[in-house]
Amino acid sequence: MTVGLALALACAVATNVAFLLKYRGAVLAPPVRVRHPLRSAVDLFRSRWFAVGWLVAVGAWVLHVGALALAPLSIVQAVLSGGLVFLAVLAERFFGFRLGRRQWAGVIVTAAGLAIIGLTSASADGGETRRYALAALIAIECGVLVVATTIAASSTHSRIPRAAQGLLLGAAAGALFGVSDIAIKYLADAVQDGALELISPWIGAALAASVIAFYASARGLQIGPGVEVIALTSVAANLIAIVGGILVFRDPIGTGALEITGRMAAFCLVVAGTAMIPAPVRATDTPSDAAGGSGTVAPASNP
């Protein structure tokens, strides 16, 4: 459990560094076009910042898989949801943003939630055999995949403001990343019974969700307010994965009334804290300004 939480914490840092780098590269790349997916991918990776960010994101994904193999999904995602704390600090320290009181209040609230989760994780773990609910797995994977893909496709409607399109794409991408996380957690548990367990439809679900999320996230970063898009992506991914951990993998919420209440309050604090960090308000020098764009921007990444 301890190693899993450490890997999740390292993943949270790497993920947000990656998102910031990818954002910087995405706003400088040609627009992502659904009808030309291969050309769009090539254009994105021709941007040095995006390519570096994607490589960092791959490293974060490896850390994530390791964390999922060693700790309950809901706990891993709760730690990752605290990554918005790192997003805020990194954006301010290294990317020219300034945080207001509300953002720092969000940092404190999120840290408090993570501290409670950490204090209750040992007794909740219990060393029980892993189980999962197949019906819940199918319902969440299929349902979220369809809904998120529909949102991503409909977000390009001309009547929707450009910034709102970016936020919708970020939310859809986050939900799809959450779908992928649930599938990866299932596979990480299943592979303990043999490598043949990897021959599974959930491999396809993870790949499909990741590919769609890749394009939705990149386009969202291009047209939306950068840090808000990253924050919304992170919140959506963590919410879907935490719910999946509880409903699909039956992650423990606690063993007694006090512990259950404390842990549920902790999850609420983490979610509330991340919601209080929508984005730093200004950037002193941003790539979009250089490219003739407008609005608040900063670097980005995640695969």
Give the mean pLDDT: 81
Radius of gyration: 18 Å
Helical run tally:
12
- The total count of strands amounts to 0
Main attributes of the structure:
303 residues; mainly alpha; disordered C terminus
How would you describe what is shown here?
With 303 residues, the protein is mainly alpha-helical. It has one domain. 73% of the residues lie in helices and 0% in strands. The protein contains twelve helices and no strands. Helix 4 packs antiparallel against helix 10 and helix 8 packs antiparallel against helix 9.
Briefly say what this structure is.
With 303 residues, the protein is an all-alpha fold. The protein has helices spanning 2-26, 37-46, 48-70, 73-81, 83-94, 101-125, 134-154, 162-190, 201-223, 226-247, 257-275, 287-290.
Give the SSE map.
Layout: H1 2-26, H2 37-46, H3 48-70, H4 73-81, H5 83-94, H6 101-125, H7 134-154, H8 162-190, H9 201-223, H10 226-247, H11 257-275, H12 287-290
